[in-house]
Design goal:
- By secondary structure, this protein is an alpha/beta fold.
- It is built from 31 helices and 25 strands.
- It has an eight-stranded mixed beta sheet with strand order 8-25-24-23-9-20-22-21, sandwiched between helices. Strands 10, 13, 14, 15, 16, 17, 18 and 19 form an eight-stranded mixed beta sheet that branches. Strands 1, 2, 3, 4, 5, 6 and 7 form a seven-stranded antiparallel beta sheet that branches.
- Helix 11 crosses helix 24 and helix 25 packs antiparallel against helix 29.
- It starts with 7 loop residues before the first helix and ends in a 5-residue tail after the last helix.
Length: 877
């Protein structure tokens, strides 16, 4: 349908909608059922059955199933009734598949729940009321309201617009904003990029505001037609997961080689071919840490769920990992470091007279009320302002001065507006009053001054000179030194309307000083940042004096740190700024373009940078930053779309807490890797040493598989949810290129693995030498080795929890780990105690002395580690 070639009246009629009242709720629901949700088609999630079958796609699992089949066939052909190996192996394989399926489903649900939290909302008219609905619920015929920063969710025909410009790079690839307006009709063959009376899904409102009729949703939009995924998700596999998958493959190759060597050694020692085949395959399956990437996914999914409860919605899984490496946090001042509760506390004329409360201030706030998009409403019997915080403060100040907004809206009809944007830092409105037009200009003093030719002095106009400008700048400086945000107001009157404001003929009227107090928790958050080796940076559009006053109050700035203005930044090249960037803690009067420059300068110095932003023009800086943090309350859709995470309470302390959780998750992943690889080395070396010593196999296939399923899996998952170390924010940031096995972790893994293997072999040797009747069929030795290996791994899980002694941390700080260890101990004990299970697992009941030996050996890794921590690690006690 050529909507651009139709009149607005025809578009309304064709879509059977109402321009003023919109669709009714019932009609909107019917259209949603007819047209579907306003989403692009996406790949369906796997069914439970598909997820279950996918668990069998692993090469080693397939090999194990084949081995089970060979075992079954051999037993059947030899007419033996011993199918125990086959049954147990299949039970373990199926159990593994069920656990994998459930964990994959859980992780998938966690990620989906986060998508719901970050779903954009759109403002529409439904049943005559303006409401916000999820963008996926938008239907053809909806009357859509658009403002600066909105991500346009559907194709729509513009009805009304004010200074509207839209960035359509998702459609056309052109990054420059395109001017749009409610032109009546265009020719049918007008190119997509030239349809000035249309807006398209996936585009972003760069400036201005508009009202439009939705004409197409979902796959019927222009974006849908070319199957361009506007909301294309980033790869959710983190660098750490890819690194671990790569490491896992290297380990797998090594284990396979060892398994082949073990198989050859067994055959050379006349071990039964099938038994040796099962031992070798089981060893490979048990020892290869194929579950590492899955465990990491589970840890990250659990972590982002917890972060969501703490006001941080993660849009990008890799950002969680990056958080732990953050060394610089660049934060906006207003609303993030401060409360964003602006209050007017000072009004001054050009003569630097404080005039709050007199007739001058009433006229001043009359101008502020005219040049204002906030609205007044009643809440619990009290008048409140709703809109942008600064405009709210000015509007409420007008209420206190008896300025009647409703009457002004009637007597001074607004006919034109130049919306505020962060680059120009001013706003202009034009109002028709009787037979003349009143132009009101409000914004940053340095922006307003450029438009002024006169200034007001007791109701008369005087020429605006350089002396006048200096007086105003001095007033601004004094107000800013008191941590006030300063705004200027100017006006002019004319018999004729013009939207050309290039002439400097405005009358400067006065200044308003607003205060936005620091958040109570900001000072402590800044202190935590600094103790964690993270440099907090304040970035603001306010005057440098205001920024410095707030920065000193909350501890960002001190005598060693400098501040710099946007004007000074313009005089520095990128290389010059990179050389000096570490000297600065406060950046004032900056534009969004400066933010990109600041981020790149810090990155050139090897820093991992987190950057906050809320405006449409902040999107480039959010993308360039290592971690882009959009504000949830004040943030535009464009900022949220460009970000890696959304801070739903706009609080700096929340960002610091997110960094703490990021570090905690990384540490827990290290613990899991530490545990799994060290215990797997122990399993491999027990079997390998047994064959090198030319003794009967210390462990059977079923023993290896059971250890892999129980004593490896449950503690590993429990370590993934270990509580965050209370001192984690007293350590320096993690180095991004540092190996996962750095700081001696690789060495510890090998040594601990060899020690576990040594006690396993020792337990086996004691059982075989002193308790087995037939040393060539050492069932007692194998049972002792099996139990010792399993229990020692469980004890070892407490070793990897912390570098501190359990005397300091306590054993109950992770109840998930305690309960998983107790469960696994119970399962290990019954395999050598319950008659039916001893047959299944080819074990033998142990007497009191044998159990004593097993427990002493099993506890030795924990006891020796505790002794080492107490004697050699001063920080452990």
């Amino acid at each position: 349908m050529n909507w651009h070639a139709m009149t607005i009246k025809n578009v309304v009629a064709k879509l059977n909608t109402d321009e003023k009242n919109g669709l009714s709720k019932k009609e909107a629901d019917l259209r949603k059922y007819k047209f579907g949700e306003n989403e692009l088609s996406k790949e369906k999630n796997k069914s439970i059955w598909q997820k279950f079958l996918a668990q069998f796609s692993d090469f080693m699992v397939i090999t194990l199933v084949i081995a089970a089949g060979i075992s079954f066939l051999t037993s059947f052909l030899s007419k033996e009734s011993d199918y125990i190996d086959t049954i147990i192996i299949l039970v373990i394989v199926i159990t593994n598949a069920i656990v994998g399926m459930l964990q994959e489903s859980k992780a998938e649900k966690e990620i989906e729940s986060l998508k719901v939290l970050s779903t954009p909302l759109s403002k529409v008219i439904r049943g005559g009321k303006v409401i916000r609905v999820p963008s996926k619920d938008i239907v053809p015929g909806d009357i859509l309201f658009l403002k600066t920063g909105d991500l346009i969710c559907a194709d729509a025909r513009i009805i009304e617009s004010t200074s509207l410009a839209v960035e359509e790079s998702a459609m056309t690839g052109e990054s420059l904003a395109v001017e749009k307006s409610a032109q009546d009709i265009l020719s049918e063959d007008t190119l997509l990029s030239d349809r000035k009376n249309m807006v398209f899904a996936g585009s972003v409102v760069n400036r201005g505001h508009a009202k439009a009729i939705v004409v197409a949703t979902g796959m019927k939009t222009e974006v849908g037609k070319v199957a361009l995924l506007v909301s294309k998700e980033k790869n959710t596999e983190t660098p750490l997961q890819r690194k671990l998958a790569s490491t896992g493959k290297i380990i797998a190759v090594g284990i396979l080689i060892i398994s082949v060597i073990v198989f050859i050694l067994g055959i050379m020692q006349n071990v039964n071919f099938l038994e040796m085949l099962m031992i070798s395959i089981s060893l490979a399956v048990a020892a290869i840490p194929e579950g590492l990437p899955a465990v990491v996914t589970i840890v990250l999914a659990n972590g982002v769920r917890k972060m969501a409860k703490l006001h941080t919605v993660v849009r990008n899984l890799p950002a969680v990992e990056t958080l732990g490496h953050a060394s610089v946090i660049c934060s906006d001042k207003t609303g993030t470091l401060t409360l964003n509760k602006m209050t007017v506390v000072d009004v001054r004329s050009v003569e630097n007279k404080e005039v709050l409360g007199n007739d001058f201030s009433k006229k001043f706030f009359t101008f502020c009320t005219l040049c204002n998009n906030s609205i007044l409403s009643k809440q619990h019997g009290e008048t409140i302002a709703q809109g942008e915080p600064t405009e709210n403060a000015l509007l409420m100040a007008g209420v206190n001065c008896k300025v009647d907004k409703r009457e002004l809206d009637i007597t001074h009809e607004k006919v034109f507006e130049v919306p505020f944007n962060s680059k120009d830092k001013f706003m202009i409105t034009v109002h028709k009053h009787k037979n003349e037009y009143i132009y009101v200009l409000k914004g940053a003093p340095e922006s307003v001054i450029k438009f002024c030719k006169f200034y007001d002095i007791n109701g008369d106009n005087a020429e605006f000179t350089s002396y006048t400008e200096n007086k105003i700048k001095n007033s601004c400086k004094h107000m800013a030194e008191s941590a006030l945000r300063v705004l200027a107001v100017a006006y002019k009157k004319s018999k004729f309307f013009s939207n050309n404001f290039s002439k400097s003929d405005f009358i400067f009227y006065g200044l308003a000083g607003l205060i936005d107090p620091p958040r109570p928790e900001a000072k402590e958050a800044v202190r935590v940042c600094k103790s964690a080796g993270i440099k907090p940076i304040m970035i603001t559009g306010d005057h440098i004096e205001t920024a410095n006053a707030i920065a000193k109050k909350i501890g960002i700035s001190d005598s060693s740190q400098k501040s710099i203005s946007g004007e000074e930044l313009n005089n520095l090249s990128e290389n010059e700024l990179a050389e000096k960037i570490n000297d600065y803690a406060v950046f004032a009067r900056v534009s969004p373009e400066h933010k990109v420059k600041i981020v790149k300068a810090f990155q050139k110095n090897g820093n991992v940078v987190a950057m906050t932003g809320d405006g449409v023009n902040d999107a480039p800086a959010l993308k360039v930053a290592d971690i882009g943090c959009a504000m949830g309350k004040t943030g535009t859709d464009a900022a949220k779309y460009a970000s890696d995470m959304i801070i739903t309470d706009d609080n700096f302390a929340t960002i610091v807490e997110a960094v703490r959780h990021g570090r905690g998750m990384f540490e827990n992943i290290r613990k899991t890797v530490h545990f799994l690889i060290s215990t797997n080395i122990g399993e491999v070396m027990v079997v390998l040493l047994g064959f090198l010593m030319k003794i009967p196999p210390p462990l059977l296939a079923i023993h290896l598989l059971w250890i892999n399923l129980v004593t490896d899996a449950f503690p590993a998952l429990a370590l993934g949810v270990d509580p965050i170390d209370k001192n984690i924010m007293k350590k320096p940031p993690l180095e991004p290129n540092k190996s996962l096995f750095s700081d001696g972790l690789g060495y510890n893994i090998v040594v601990e693995g060899l020690f576990i293997a040594a006690i396993g072999i020792l337990s086996y040797s004691i059982g075989r030498a002193f308790f087995d009747v037939d040393p060539y069929h050492p069932i007692i030795g194998q049972t002792m080795a099996f139990i010792t290996l399993g229990l020692s791994q469980l004890m070892h899980s407490f070793n990897v929890q912390s570098r501190k002694s359990l005397v300091v941390t306590g054993i109950l700080n992770n109840l998930s780990l305690v309960w998983s260890v107790l469960l696994c101990i119970f399962l290990e004990i019954i395999t050598a105690s319950v008659p039916t299970l001893t047959t299944f697992f080819k074990t033998a009941p142990l007497n009191s002395l044998q159990w004593l030996i097993v427990w002493l050996l099993s506890l030795s890794p924990l006891l020796i580690s505790e002794l080492e921590k107490i004697l050699f690690n001063k920080k452990s006690i």
